[in-house]
Amino acid sequence: MHERSLPASPNWYCSRCSDVNSSGLLGIGAKNIIYLIEVCASSCRVKGELVGHKDLVSGFSFCQHAEQSHLCVSSSVDGNVRFWDSETRAVVKEHTAHQNPVSAVHWSPVDKNLVVSGDEKGIMVCHWFHTGDTASFFPEPRTIFCLSCSPHTWSCVAVGYKDGMIVLIDVSKKGEVMHRLRGHDDEIHSLAWSWVASEDALYSRPEDNEGTSRVSAGEEGGCYLASGSKDQTVRIWSTAKARSVMTLKLPFLKKRGSAVDPGVKERLWLNVHWPKGRATQLVSSCFGGELVMWDLTRTGKQKWTVFGTSSEGQNHSRIVFNTSLVQLQDGRELLISTSMDREVKCWDLASLDCCWTLPTLGGFVYALTFSPVGVGCLALGVGDNMIRVWNTLTTQNQYDTRLFWQGIKSKVTALAWHPRREGSLAFGTDDGKVGIYDVFSNKPPQISSSYHRKTVYTLAWGPPVPPMSFGAAEGKAAYSLYSCAGEGIILQHDPYKLSGEASDIDKLIKDTNNIQHKLSPHTDLSWKPDGKVVAIGNEDGCIDIYQAPSLKLLCSIQQHHKIINTLRWHHDHSSPPELHCLLASGSSNAIVYIHDLRSVIENPPDSPVVLTEPYRRLSGHTAKITGMAWSPHHDARLVTVSYDGTAQVWDVLQEAALSNYRGHLGYLLCVAWSPEDPDVIWTGGKDFTVQEWRVSKQEFTKPPKGKKMVELQEKKKTNPKQKKKNKKATADGGAAAPTIVNGAGEKATSAGQEASDEEDVDEVSSTNSPVPPPGIGATQRKPSAPVKSKDKPDVNLLSQKKKKPRSMLPVSTSMDHRPKEDLLQDCITLASIRHSSLPPTGCVPGQGEHIHLGLFHDREALYCMLEAEEEAHMEAGHFDSVVYLRLWSGDLQGALQLATEKGELNDHLLSVAPMAGFEVWSRAVEAYVRQLCLQEQYLKAASHLLSINKLYEAIELLRSHKLYREAIALVKARLPANDPVLKELYTCWAAVLEKDGHFSAAAKCYLAAGASFDAAKVISRKNEVSSLRAAATLARISGEAVLAQSLALRCAKDLAAVQDWEGAQQVLKTQKNLLVHRLHLCVAELLTGTLLDVGVVPQSSVSGHPWATPGKNSTNFLERVRHVWDVEFGVSEKSTDHCSVAALVQELKSVESPQSTSNVPLKQLLLFSSLHLTRAVLSFLLEEDDDDQLMKELWQAVAWTRDSEHFSVSAEFCRLLFPDGDISVWSKRNPRIPLSEETAAAPAVSLQAFVCYHRLYEHWWSNSTETQTQTQTQTQNGPAHPAAAEPGVTDEPKVNGGLSESGRSSCASDMSLLLSESHASCQATQRMMGNIQNRLTSMVQQHSRTQGGQPDGDGSTRESTQNQDSEEREEESFLSLSTKMSALQKQLAELPDTLKTYPHPDVLECCLVLLHLSRVSPSVSESLRQKATDLLHRYGTSGSIRRAAQRLTA
Q1: 416-456 pLDDT, tens per residue?
Q2: CB–CB of 910/900 below 8 Å?
Q3: What is the distance between the alpha carbons of residues 1265 and 1271, in angstroms, rounded to a whole number?
Q4: Is the pLDDT of residue 474 over 60?
Q5: Could you give the CA distance from residue 627 to residue 587 in angstroms, rounded to a whole number?
Q6: 1282 Cβ contact partners less than 8 Å away, ≥ 6 residues apart
Q7: C-alpha to C-alpha distance for 630 and 970, rounded to whole angstroms
Q8: Which of 258, 312, 868, 932 has the least CB density, counted as fewest CB within 10 Å?
Q9: How far is residue 980's CA from residue 491's CA, in Å, rounded to a whole number?
Q10: Residues 6 or more apart from 633 whose CB is under 8 A from it?
Q11: Are 1357 and 1351 in contact (CB under 8 A)?
């Protein structure tokens, strides 16, 4: 699928994580994937991947039998062992016999069906491939580090443990231990069997006390076994005698050996490999990544030969983990090695030279960019803290890459080549650093002194803008470097003066465009190739186009609604002019927009314009867009990459998808189009790989459907578990977790932590943890198990006693470990120097071969020796030892300077620094502070700043790292109380606490800073009763009266909503000027209590007042309200000042009330209704005779209960307010004269009509003969329409027992108000409009079904169509109905507004009820009956009403 690819780095600290089969197919475990690589003597090629493990791959092995060479097996930290077919790349079998992380696996070279695996707890499992059976053994309660199956006996397996023990077991006898090989005292890293099936004579080591005698051949039919251990030795074991016959100590090679102390165990992984057909030769790794070939039959000191000595730079630069051998058809033997330096190397065993090197990647690939000057030079920004520059056009080495790591201590997230200067590469990192590398020199990069606070998203070269563009022309740079980072700012850097301060272009943008508000955070920028305009993407999805150099805003593109991730201008070479101004944009939504800005750029507008429609829209991706690139070879051809894991090529003008690439495992982050080949594109992403692929060879044209790929979802689920297991594995000392830990690759998000710091990973992975107690699992073993465990503590104790601190003089010490003859000669030489005037020729104590003699000669010789020791420590990286050597020699200032440069300062050095003077001490303290900050020891760093009287710097240090509590304590202890720093600290801390949801703590900070208003606001953000009450009290105490009243009112409303009346009144009582709201809640409580007493509202009150309970002899509602107001609140007609009725009326008018609807809960409804009722009572108490306003408020109060469809509540509400059915009781003008339609305003008439409406139903129900049970069932559904009932049959209950005879006569006398002809006409018009609207809707739906032509299932479409045609001839047409609708709308508009604003009950409904009553009650007059009949005949056009009227008038 792809041409070339850089795979992910092989996993570290695994004994067998790579293997090669006889066909030259190499398998490497990287993260949870196995990469398959075809290898030959000249090159290699990534063939594919084996994907399926959910956690890190810990072991991998091919079947070495010819007929099954395509089969392989892998183990994982997730405890699974999987069998694969490398040709189909599919899982053949999967075994889950292990319950713990598997640390080693091997396919037997003898039995093609046997695979053996071991886990961290010491459990071994035999897997039989042909049957699928498994067998488990527990030979030793130790942590397994490696294992190897014998190439001679199928049942013999060698197992290496963490504590240095090697055990030979027989799997045919249920894991019986054959031999225990003791000799190593640290981890066993690797085991290798000799391919010769006998023990031929080998020279033993002199220290074995065997002299020069040879081991007799094949005495017991055994063979040799080689082991490599962390104790820096390789041992050759005789399996027949179960003892070591040879010990090989790793050489201290000149490259790194001068800095290695043989008494201290260095960080080391000692891999051994016994080449097939070379019985006396053994390959092993060494300290610094070198590979050595041991000749086991050679005598003398040097038995080894180093690989790659023919030229410099062939060896690995870090320790080697795995080696594997393949023999080509031409007989050449190739050794493949993997290393911590993230390179896979191939070696020719005949010449020991490196054939080729395959670079690998240890992190997300965040950036890809081709050099515009150096053709084919591709730069990669990777999450393993390194930059790689790949010469993609070289023919000799297809993977010719160079690594750049100096000055980079975080993930490389952005890259940009200089447009003209060859080799100048700008980079940005995850920690906000911006720098420039010269890739053709070995110099460290130039680092900008201006750091971003968050991840650098984008780098771009562009023309300088003010203030950098000011000054003489010859002194100005042609290009400036622009960086955009996660905090949302864009900095302009001077490439010739990176030490100067970078400028924030936001200031220029605001000044040029006269912008006063805060700009939206920037997330990306892109300069047009001609440098005239720049596009800037923002966090809110907006794209701004600015004209250089003043950065005048030309236009704003508002099409995206999410954060802008990438912007790219179309190239301007060899393309039509109309394409030069195309801008592509991608955001966190899945659509790519293309904008044509030619008119805006060529004819700049006077004021900025806003563009809301794109030129082209490219839809197909299913997740956020992360990168894009225009083809330099085509016109308007674009490639985009996305979080959906694919790369898509588009024809922009046609909006067509041309090709889709799906070769990556995970989301993509970057893309680059080859500048040489129009058909080649490069992509990189989350799977730690860079892949080269051809557009024309892709199978798919569009991205896959679905929101996310299945692989991404599975990976996301396993990540937390993987990270946890890795830590556990490291702590237990098993197969330590590889360095690969997931990071984050999206913008506007903090980048995830990724274990790319190789030094830290080395330290963690090689940590010696105590071996688990040997008693674990002893009950499952033979009685001899306790005996073994008894000896084990002694072994650990011995290993602990042997540990020594690192020697300060390793070079001279190593000279004392030479042969006895050399040591005796040293004594003679020293004697000659001290007692002879002529020392031996060429002998200079402290130098060369006599460096160790400097310790026994004069001071000058000692200084020479110390200089040599310093050089050795420097090469080894032991800078602390160099510091102490300089300190001993009296160079205190030099020691401090070196410790400062290498970050090796400590408390001891700082304590002796004053001996060199105050300035030196002060500089040392400042350097130590910076070092402590890098180590995240901020409190200690601040304390050291105090020692040199830098108080403000210490405070700023604590504040910048969000240690606000400590910073405030320091300020209050050392500075005056009015220092502005204290208020700033409180404010900053409050903002952080508020953002995190700690509102109470934030309020304390605001109070301490004197911001009482903000304190009350932040407490109220929780929006619950206790918080609102506290916030209101706080605001009142602090003098924020307006805010206190607002918060108290909110709290009281919440309490009233749950009918906690006492609590609500108590809250309002604490605040001034809220009397009118207390009156409102009083009315609401009285109203609720009264309705509760008659049983029309449910019981749910939390607390109430005694005066709210209605007594037995209670007066009407108005009098009760007036009495409570006067007694409890002091409000009456005579009250004055703030209790005066006029003031309360004006205050209550400012309270807004929503319009009545049918979806309001009953409790809330009563609160809204009581508000209008409170206004009505206040209007009644007002001395002015304003009955119109009073009637409006009463009408609004009744309207809430009426429109909410709570009929029983509405009826009881009207009875409560108007006990005699007459609203004139509330009138102050003429309280005894009944209101009529001719003498009163519309609200009063409508109100009286609804009161009469309820009394009419009460009169009807009082004549009902139905049982009480049936009537109660219908109460909750409102009044039954009399059109659906026979005369004399009722569907409604009685209310309050019905009406008396006097009540019935009074009711009948008022019923004429319900028979309003004007309202009947209005309601008839509205009813006709509704009917016509329903008919029109039905016709449209029927027409749509007819056009669809869908049969009913039985082929009756034709018949139904004919029936519909016949019916449509009888009905009116769509046009005539529309005409009628228009006429009715016009007729309705001509009616008075009062008819529609203040409606009456349904007139026809009232007519039917009156006609029914006339048949059962004599109280209905003949004139009233005749008027009802006439109205029914005139306006009762519907069928149901007409039929009911006929029954009632017959």
Answers
A1: 999 999 999 999 999 999 999 999 998 999 999 999 999 99
A2: no
A3: 10
A4: no
A5: 9
A6: 1405, 1408, 1409, 1412, 1444, 1448
A7: 56
A8: 312
A9: 29
A10: 673, 678
A11: yes
